[in-house]
From TrEMBL:
Belongs to the ABC transporter superfamily. This is ABC transporter domain-containing protein. It holds the Pfam family ABC_tran. The keyword Calcium does not apply. Residues 431-445 have a biased composition (Basic and acidic residues). It comes from Streptomyces rubradiris (Streptomyces achromogenes subsp. rubradiris). Residues 43-279 form the ABC transporter domain. The keyword Transferase does not apply. It comes from the Bacteria. Residues 358-457 are annotated as: Disordered. Residues 358-416 have a biased composition (Low complexity).
Length: 457
């Protein structure tokens, strides 16, 4: 699998735009009895179908989409992705549960309010974007403004701005038939963007595009997100697309969200065998970060070696360590959080957690980024008081790793306290002076992805 996962900002903890709780969508006769009856709601999909004739496309799903994040809904065909996202704006009527946008109850909205929701607040970009064939590119983009009643000259001016923004300047007068598939998709994107929605909902927008154009469009979405910080919900069944674009990923199976977390959490700590199978071929070094891979620093290595940010990928660390010929320091605001050496790098690539080198004492030290001049005393070794302390509610050393969260209700992500060592997702948090592989984190070498499947960033 080729993967180009950008170094990303830590996941936002901003307030939710969408809040979804206990959501069900059941197709079939008398659908509301399924979520209401614990016996029926516990049935496996095939049994539910044979006993009731119903399909539970979405089963008791809860999550928040936070302001400014790209929230990816991923899963195999038929897992319920489209149904779930269509429920958000009631393009499909939910059977049970609650949905709120900015605190407003979506299920209580009347038709006019719903229309307003779909036109102004949560615009959908479809795979088949339904461009109007007899209109020019400019008029297709302006269409969304036209239904909003914006005057002709203003809407043409704004449309031209968004045509340029998606890289189609000069093509304003063409008709959709004179465009390639990728260009048409850009028109669809500009048409959704021009109405300035709070949230963009993408339903597998690029799955019909050939791989190169697809990558182009993914980059376009990533760029727009970077520049505008717009909240996006993005459906895909393509893992590399999910890892590339998603700040967080909800992985669906048979209508349920089986895991919700950052790409790093999904790849580093699959919640079950299904997720593990999904992420098996992912080049871990391109997803896992230095914060996850590092070991505690000793006093002497806290002052030497190349400096990396905690969010840098292990792939970046491999390059830095190879160039310097020495372990890299993971630095945050002048503080050495830990060290990444060859053992750690190999451990990530092989999918195993290396044992600590004998005698390694952890040292989290407040030192400058610049290496200490030769002959000066190195930074002081960490005192007990400096020890990275787990934030309240997190695991402490020695605890078995908590199973990765099955849904939003579990703490899929959390902010890291300043100076705190963030544990490998599902992995281990070493106690001071201790290195222990986390149970369940160690993968047998036979399971490690073959070297041949990996490609450089
Ligand atoms: N109108 C409907 N009536 C009955 N069953 C439906 C209906 N729409 C969807 N389903 C069923 O609900 C389940 C989820 O479908 P959905 O389209 O949400 O999945 P998906 O993950 O988006 O799939 P894909 O990736 O193929 O688009 C499937 O079993 C599907 O057959």
């Amino acid at each position: 699998m080729t993967l180009t996962v950008p170094t990303r900002k830590p996941p936002t903890t901003a307030e939710p735009v969408f809040s979804v709780s206990g959501l069900w969508k059941v197709f079939g006769p008398k659908p509301e009895r399924v979520p209401a009856d614990p016996e029926l709601s516990a049935l496996a999909p095939a049994e539910l179908r044979s006993r009731t004739g119903c399909t539970a496309a979405v089963r008791d799903v809860s999550f928040d989409v936070r302001k400014g994040e790209v929230f990816v809904v991923m899963g195999l065909s038929g897992s319920g992705k489209s149904t779930l996202v269509r429920c958000l704006t009631r393009l499909i009527e939910p059977t049970a549960g609650t949905i709120a946008i900015d605190g407003e109850d979506v299920r209580a909205m009347d038709r006019a309010r719903l229309r307003e929701l779909r036109r102004h607040r949560a615009a959908m970009v479809f795979q088949h974007f339904g461009l109007l064939p007899h209109r020019t590119v400019l008029d297709n983009v302006a269409y969304g403004l036209e239904i909003q009643g914006v005057g002709r000259s203003e809407r043409r001016e704004r449309a031209a701005e968004f045509v340029a923004k998606v890289g189609l300047a000069g093509m304003e007068k063409r008709r959709p038939g004179q465009l390639s598939g990728g260009q048409r998709q850009r028109v669809g994107l500009a048409r959704a963007l021009v109405v300035d929605p709070e949230v963009l909902l993408f339903d597998e927008p690029f799955s019909a595009l050939d791989p190169l154009i697809r990558r182009d469009m993914q980059d376009e979405v990533a760029r727009l997100h970077r520049e505008e910080g717009r909240t996006m919900v993005f459906i895909t069944h393509d893992l590399s697309e999910a890892l590339k674009l998603g700040d967080r990923i909800a992985l669906m199976r048979d209508g349920r969200v089986v895991q919700l977390g950052t790409p790093e959490e999904i790849v580093g700590a699959p919640a079950d065998d299904y997720v593990r199978e999904f992420v098996r071929d992912v080049p871990r070094e391109q997803v896992l970060t230095c914060r996850t891979a590092m070991r505690p620093a000793c006093a002497e290595d806290a002052a030497h070696g190349p400096a990396l940010r905690p969010e840098a990928t292990v792939a970046e660390a491999i390059e830095a360590v190879a160039r310097a010929g020495a372990p890299a320091r993971v630095m945050d605001q002048g503080r050495c959080l830990g060290v990444i050496d060859h053992d750690r790098l190999l451990g990530v690539v092989a999918g195993v957690t290396p044992e600590a080198p004998a005698g390694t004492a952890p040292a989290a030290t407040a030192v400058g980024d610049a290496p200490a001049p030769a002959g000066t005393s190195t930074a002081p070794a960490m005192t007990a008081g400096d020890a990275p302390t787990p934030a309240a509610g997190t695991r402490t050393a020695g605890n078995a790793p908590a199973p990765a969260p099955a849904a939003e209700s579990a703490p899929a992500t959390r902010e890291t306290a300043p100076g705190e060592h963030r544990p490998a997702p599902g992995g281990h948090r070493p106690a001071p002076g201790e290195h222990r592989p986390a149970p369940g984190e160690r993968r047998p070498a036979s399971e490690a992805p073959a070297g041949g499947t990996r490609e450089a960033v």
